[in-house]
Each structure stands twice: as structure tokens, then as C-alpha cells.
Amino acid sequence: TASGELIMWDGAGTFLNRVQVSDEEISSLTIVNKAAGAEAEIILSTGKQVCRLVIEAGACTPIAVIEFNAEVTAYSFEPNLRVGIVGTSCCTVWKADLFIGDADALPEDPTKDTKAVRLFAGHSGYINQITHFPGELGLIGSCDSKGSLRVWQQSEVDQGWGSDQIMHFQTHEVGFVCVL
């Protein structure tokens, strides 16, 4: 909701829970799975942050938080919720690692074992959709608010991560949707 409240229902429409997860408006939310002993494990973005949270017994506990240089406008995470790609309103794309160290223990500081590496900037509008295929191909597809679709090849280099643009398609349509 606009007030940062998460309201959960099951597939049949039965109300499950209402939890305050943020003081800010939730701009994007992914409920990924049920964590061991928890009601849900989620990733959400609020403003400049991406957070990984566990909801358990009606309480919301942040287990990983990364703050970016601008408002988060799109993200795509691997099923394990550890690594993902994040797009921002200032046209940058980041690799985000929400590693929390010991998977059985909740961290005292949810920002401690997280990191973000800037992969590239190249769009002229804010990133409105992003998708990626981790693994051998390492492809990233990104779309912006001005109708640009770009495909990038992610690669590991000596000093971290890098990306090379391998395709750029420009349309006059605004709100272009990224499909890979």
C-alpha cells in the first residue's frame, strides 16, 4: 500500500495477515516463498532501497537491505533471492547481492553482508523493466521510459563485474515491455 503496509491473502482469497513493512510507499513487491518457519519471504523496493524480508508471527524482519543512488524502478532476482539486477530512475543498472551470511541466523545489521556493483548506464530514460538470465549466458534485458530496449552481456572481470551492450532497439512507443 501507499503507507508501507503489506496485506496478504491466500490463493482462495482468504485474508492471512496485515504487516507494516516500511514507513514509505512500497513501489514493487515479490513474494518468493515460504521460508522455514515463516509465513513468507519477500523482496520489495521502497524509494532508493531494495529489502529482503521475512514475515513471521505477524512481524516483519529485514534480513538484507541495499540503498542505491536513485529511486529503484525495476528489479529481477534469482529464485534464491540472493543475487539480482536492479534498475534506477537515473538510468543505472546494478548487480545486487543480498547475501546474509549464515542462512539460519538473522543478522543484527541487515546492511552488513550486502553489496551493489554498478554494471552500466546507457539509457536516456529511467529503467522501467529489467530481466536477466544468470549463468553461462549472463544476458540482461533492460527497457526505459523512452522506448529503448537494450540487451547486455554480463561478464566477470578481474576487479568485479562488467557488462557490454550487445543490442539496442529504439521504438517511438513509450512504456515498451522487456521480454527475453
N→C terminal distance: 29 Å
Q: Tell me the β content.
A: over 45%
Computed over alpha carbons, the radius of gyration is 17 Å
Average pLDDT confidence is 75
* Helix content range: under 10%
> Which structural class best describes the helix and strand composition?
mainly beta
Oligomer: single chain
List unreliable stretches of 5+ residues: none
Estimate the global geometry from the Cα principal axes. Answer: globular
Total number of beta strands: 14
How many DSSP H or I helices?
0
- What order do the strands of the largest sheet run in, or round the barrel if closed? 3-4-5-6
Order of helices and strands: EEEEEEEEEEEEEE
Q: How can the largest sheet be summarized?
A: 4 strands, antiparallel
Describe the fold and architecture.
The chain is built from no helices and 14 strands. It is mostly beta strands and 180 residues long. The strands form 4 sheets. Strands 3-4-5-6 form a 4-stranded antiparallel sheet, with no helix packed on it. A 4-stranded antiparallel sheet has the order 7-8-9-10, with no helix packed on it. A 4-stranded antiparallel sheet has the order 11-12-13-14, with no helix packed on it. Strand 7 (72-77) and strand 8 form a beta hairpin. The protein is globular. 31% of the residues are buried. The model has no long low-confidence stretch (mean pLDDT 75).
Primary descriptors:
180 residues; mainly beta; four-stranded antiparallel β-sheet; 0% helix
